[in-house]
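dumping this here before i forget
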Amino acid sequence: MSSTEHTELMSTESFKTKVKNGIKDYFSVDAWKDRFPITRWLPQYKASKGLSDVIAGLTVGLTVIPQGLAYASIAKLPLVYGLYSAFMGSFVYMFLGMSKDITVGPTAIMSLLVGQYGKPIDEYGEVHDPTYAILLAFFCGIFQILMGMTRLGFVTNYISAVVISAFTSVSAINIGFGQIKNILGIRFQSETFVMDFYHLFKHIKETKWPDLVLGISSILFLALMRFGKNKSQARLDKIGKAGPTRVKAPWKALWILGTARNAVLVVIAAGIMFIVEMNGSIGHITLTGNVTSGLPPFRPPNLGAENILKHLNIGLVIIPLIGFLENIAIAKGFARQNGYKVESNQELIALGC
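structure:
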């Protein structure tokens, strides 16, 4: 056997060995545990944490109801879709996600982005056909899964933090300004921030004072409850765990109410609206309207919808990247704070699913 043939034989054997080891590693128990993180943390879960987790779950669940409705409005979708998106992702993330501290659901930035793509179905352009939002979610999920499987999670490391900060700040301004018309109780059709600004002052005389009073009162209530939460937290820290229960109880109650302030506000406001309706004065205040009960039928997305690329456009690329970037930044922040690791590619797969 010549030296050349010997070298080729060794290279072939080396390649076969690498492939064999790669396949062995891919199907190993540890590799599959990494793909389903629940198999690592669940056996180590302590029952003593159960009560705290139940309280946390109830608090987040109550909070996400008004948030889901609000984010659906920002995304220009029927309100019930905000509730759907608030809980479906959490069930999947429980099995595939690596961060124990984040919630998977609608966010202000993602809702704003989704609202930019779609097909309007009302005269004011405030509600889009949910068919295209479902298709957008479907294709974004495939995009994120493929990125995770091909180990492309590192791509987001090259996106400047300054760009992210600027984008977040502008989004906050855009969202905040866009909600002023709802607080004033006026309606108009607009596609850009400049036109929002113009139409807001054009229709300012159409302000519904009951809506304005209720809106400002709600903002003040939320601010007051947040102040109470921070005050009670500081007080509880000062008292300490060893402090008497009768002293801690009222502060703990205030802390819980402050944490669930969004849900508390919704309950109070709904009660007020019920009383107003009983008195026959409901027409003076703008309501969200009917929210469909139950779950929609489970079926595949309508891939035969008209002009999918025209309506979704560049959102098919931008939204999965921004969504992942927003998630991984928060997840890694909590991971550093609480002493555990989050792997970018696994998070991509979790979010995509």
